[in-house]
Amino acid sequence: MEIWFILFWLAIGLFFGIGSGMTGLSAVNLILPILYTVFSFGILMAIGTSLFIDMINSAIVALFYARYANVDFKIGLMMGIISFMFAILGAHVAFIIASASEDFLAGSFGILQLFIGVAFIYRGLKKSESTESGEMTKTRVAIWFDKIPDNYKKFIIIIASVILGFIGGLLGAGGGFVITFILIFLLSLESHKAVGTACFVMLFTTAGAVLYYSTQFSIDFGFGGLIGVFSIIGAFIGTQAAHKLSEKHLTFALGLIIMVFGIVMIFY
Questions:
Q1: Residue 75 C-alpha from the chain's centroid
Q2: What's the whole-model pTM score?
Q3: Cβ atoms 168, 80 nearer than 8 A
Q4: Cα(233)–Cα(239) distance, rounded to whole angstroms?
Q5: 10, 117, 157, 216: least buried by Cβ within 10 Å?
Q6: Read out DSSP for 144-207?
Q7: Alpha-carbon Rg for the chain in angstroms
Q8: Residue partners of 233: CB distance under 8 A and separation at least 6
Q9: Using CB atoms within 10 A of its CB, is residue 159 exposed (0-12), middle (13-18) or buried (19+)?
């Protein structure tokens, strides 16, 4: 194994780990395009390997955040179990429509990320710190969400979990950005807890998809394990940095990183 190869993936793994540790970044946003374009992986092998890396990284990042009591296990388990089941279904569909255009779907998801990124940046600029609790003031959507009956709240979260799980299995997108968005803007979780809980949910989503992809021999476990180890180091750095940032700065950083990867996906 050449030294440039190791250094290249060490840098990518570190960068991905830091991004994941700070925002819940999914490997599909960074590693999947590299596997597919630079290393000529088949699209299904690239998705499966990226999911495997996501699973490793999500477990580590969620553990780091849990140490700071920044994982809501009640919400995470409910969303995670549902997304696990539908990730298996999404992975099955991915093998059925493997010949479909991935460029259009990736570009569409990139546009979605741009909108989410703008929302996070706006939220960061409007951030109002509470000196007592350090929590974010609620958005209009969150206030509306609080007023609806609990059964409807659960229904909305269940539907979101179904969609995110299915997309996770279909395209390899663990949904960390979108889950974080839902947790902040609908459930009013502060950014640190939202990222930690999102990574916990991603662990279930990716595990379901990895289970199916592994039965189809569409995961390079050696390659994925190597990058996964490098990303663990980056995840440690990212989580430490995230907990040193203020709520306002972290929310703003979330928006910037999401927008950057949204642009990358659109023009990839």
A1: 16
A2: 0.74
A3: no
A4: 10
A5: 216
A6: HHHHS-HHHHHHHHHHHHHHHHHHHHHH----HHHHHHHHHHTT---HHHHHHHHHHHHHHHHH
A7: 17
A8: 13, 14, 17
A9: exposed
Kindly state the tokens that stand for 162: 């179904």
**DSSP assignment letter at 92:** H
Rounded CA-CA distance 92/166 in Å is 10
The CA distance from 154 to 144, in Å, is 14
Residue 246 has a CB neighbour count (10 Å cut-off) of 13
Return d(Cα 188, Cα 191) in angstroms, integer: 9
Q: What's the distance, CA 100 to chain centroid?
A: 23
The amino acid at residue 207 is A
Which tokens hold the place of 63?
């553990």
Confidence of residue 184 (pLDDT cuts 50, 70, 90): confident
> For residue 101, how many C-alpha atoms fall within 13 Å in the half-sphere facing its CB?
5
- What span, in angstroms and rounded, lies between the C-alpha atoms of 186 and 180? 10
Mean pLDDT confidence for 250-264:
70
Say how far apart CA 8 and CA 99 lie, in whole Å. Answer: 30
Higher pLDDT, 138 or 112: 112
The alpha carbon of residue 46 and the mean position of all alpha carbons in its chain are separated, in whole angstroms, by: 17
Q: Which of 248, 259, 236, 247 is nearest to 21 (CA)?
A: 236
Tell me 95's DSSP state: H
Selection from 265, 105, 119, 90 nearest residue 194 by Cα = 119
Half-sphere CA count of 198, side-chain side, radius 13 A: 29
Q: What's the mean per-residue pLDDT of the chain?
A: 77
- Between CA 174 and CA 86 the distance in angstroms is 12
